Each structure stands twice: as structure tokens, then as C-alpha cells.
TrEMBL record:
A Pfam family reported for this protein in Swiss-Prot or TrEMBL: DUF1722
Sequence intervals crossing the membrane: none
Coiled-coil region(s): none
Listed name of the protein: DUF523 and DUF1722
Superkingdom: Bacteria
Organism: Desulfonema magnum
Length: 317
């Protein structure tokens, strides 16, 4: 796994900063103690950063879920314009941070990325809102991986998000250099199996785009590729999709493996496909054969090592 700094935006309270309305925090130990070893966080608290104090009156979204107002709960003060003015400037300054993703605070009227409570003027409530800052951030950075800390408690969503931030970091590094078709082909080649694990359709589209790269202007080519890559990685992997990739990898060893070894691999992949063992088991076995038989194409595949093994993400999916 490459050693590189990944910068993530994050709601400040998740790091243990005492910025909540009651002077408390919502420290998430996985984010601080485990993932924090591999990333550099850029903390953001929309409510304190835009000028609201600590402690402060609680806020909630009121009105239309598509364009709600940010109101104080008890005194009914409208804080919408204050938040929008600050957020408009903050998203512009965050452009310079070279973020590879953002982790929002769930349910927050400023930072919740989905299913935030929105209250109607008549007293009803629906969980269909998006926090004011979160909405503006996602509109400004539509290609960045984003999640909230609540969803990251789901092992599959956690693995997907962290895989995506590592992919995006490598993309940032590629894009920072002089753009060449050769570098894009190399990037795509190393990510082929990872893309395939998300979507056969996008795998084919991206392969065609790269194969016909000479006919496209370089900036347009990179832009198209990034858009399709983002779209592909937003589609979740499944045991069935992963099993297809694992069987594809197994095909590289037809000439080397004994019949017993082939049978063992088939059984292990099937145990994974039926969710009796985690993904780390067949991947470890395949990595053993890749090293043993020195398969250079597979050695370069990020699918087989998409994030630090110490995070143990594939132990639970």
C-alpha cells in the first residue's frame, strides 16, 4: 500500500472538538484512532465557524425539503442567510485543501448529508432533508466521495468509502502531473479489476474510452474518465460481483495450479460468494499465488490491496 497523505474534510465534533450546541462533542474513535492514522483531517463546524456561539440554541430545518430555512428551535430566528454566506466562502477556500472526501455529521441541520428532519410550518415532519452546508458542499464538489459517520458503521459502506478515497487520492496525483494518454492508460490498467468489482457496464465503457483515447482532447479525456470513474465507484460491490472478479483472477493460473489447488480456490470463492467467509480469505489465497508465480499484471492491481490491511475492512465484508 502506497504511503501518501489523504486529506479529508470532517465535521469537527467527530474529532472530539467541543463545538456542539451544548458544548459537547461526538468523537468517533474509528475515525480518530484508526482511520486517523492514514489521513489528515480538515475540521469544519458550520455552526460555530459561521459565527454562532457555544453553547447555543438548537437549530432545525423548516419549510420545503428542497430549500428549507435554518431556524432556531425556540426563538424562531432565521439563520439561513448567515449560513449560506459563510458556506459560499468556505467551499471556495476548501478548493485549496485538495480534499479526497468528506465525512459529515448525521442528522445535523447544517452538516447532515441525507435523511435530515425537515419541519413544516404546520407542525409536520419528514426525514427528507439535507443540511445547508452539506448540500452546498456536495453541489460544489460533486465528484468527491462523501459519507456520514452513521453510515460508516455499516462495514460495506465503510469499505466502499475508504476504497474510494484512496482511488481519488491516486487520481489527484495523476491529474497533478502533465496529462498524458499513457499515464491514463496505466492508471486505468491498475484499477481495471477494482472497477469491474463495481460495474461491468462501466468497466466496458471506460475500457472503450481509454482504447479510443487518441481521438479525444486530453483535458476532455481526463474529465470524461473522472466522471465515469466516480459514477462506477458509487455503485456498491456485492459478493456476486466480487466472486466474478476472483474467478477472473483465478483464470490467470490455469497452467500453474494443481487440480487440488484449483478445487480449493473454487470452494473458497464459493464460500465467500455465499457469505460464509469474508473477502479477505480468497484475496489472501490469491495474493499467495500471485507472489508465488510472479504475475506482474495482477501484482499491479489495486483491487487486491485497495487500502491498508491494518484497517481490516475486508475482514467484515
Amino acid at each position: 500500500m502506497e504511503k501518501t497523505t489523504i486529506k479529508l474534510g470532517i465535521s469537527s465534533c467527530l474529532l472530539g472538538h467541543k463545538v456542539r450546541y451544548d458544548g459537547g462533542h461526538k468523537r468517533d474513535r474509528f475515525l480518530t484512532d484508526t482511520l486517523g492514522k492514514y489521513v489528515e483531517y480538515v475540521p469544519v463546524c458550520p455552526e460555530t465557524d459561521c459565527g454562532m456561539g457555544v453553547p447555543r440554541e438548537t437549530l432545525r430545518l423548516v419549510g420545503s425539503p428542497d430549500a428549507p430555512r435554518l431556524m432556531t428551535t425556540r426563538t424562531k430566528q432565521d439563520r439561513t442567510e448567515q449560513m449560506i454566506r459563510w458556506a459560499s466562502e468556505r467551499v471556495r477556500t476548501l478548493e485549496h485543501e485538495e480534499l479526497c472526501g468528506f465525512i459529515f455529521k448525521k442528522d445535523s441541520p447544517s452538516s447532515g448529508m441525507e435523511r435530515v428532519k425537515v419541519y413544516s410550518e404546520k407542525g409536520g415532519m419528514s426525514k427528507t432533508g439535507v443540511g445547508i452546508f452539506a448540500r452546498m458542499f456536495m453541489e460544489h464538489f460533486p465528484l468527491l466521495p462523501v459519507e456520514d459517520e452513521g453510515r460508516l458503521h455499516d462495514p460495506k459502506l465503510r469499505e466502499n468509502f475508504i476504497e474510494r478515497i484512496f482511488v481519488y487520492k491516486r487520481w489527484r496525483e495523476l491529474s497533478a502531473r502533465k496529462k498524458t494518454r499513457g499515464d491514463l492508460v496505466d492508471y486505468h490498467t491498475r484499477h481495471k479489476l477494482l472497477i469491474l468489482s463495481h460495474s461491468q457496464k462501466h468497466y466496458r465503457i471506460m475500457g472503450k474510452l481509454v482504447a479510443e483515447a487518441k481521438g479525444t482532447r486530453i483535458n476532455e479525456l481526463y474529465e470524461k474518465y473522472e466522471n465515469i470513474l466516480t459514477e462506477a465507484l458509487q455503485l456498491k460491490t456485492t459478493p456476486k460481483k466480487n466472486a466474478n472478479v476472483l474467478q477472473h483472477i483465478m483464470g490467470y493460473f490455469k497452467a500453474q495450479l494443481s487440480s487440488d489447488e484449483k478445487q480449493e480456490l473454487i470452494e473458497v470463492i464459493d464460500y465467500y460468494r455465499t457469505e460464509n467467509i469474508p473477502l479477505i480469505v480468497p484475496v489472501t489465497l490469491l495474493n499467495h499465488y500471485i507472489r508465488k508465480y510472479d504475475q506482474p499484471y495482477l501484482k499491479a492491481q489495486h483491487y487486491l490491496s485497495p487500502h491498508p490491511i491494518e484497517l481490516q475492512l475486508r475482514n467484515h465484508v
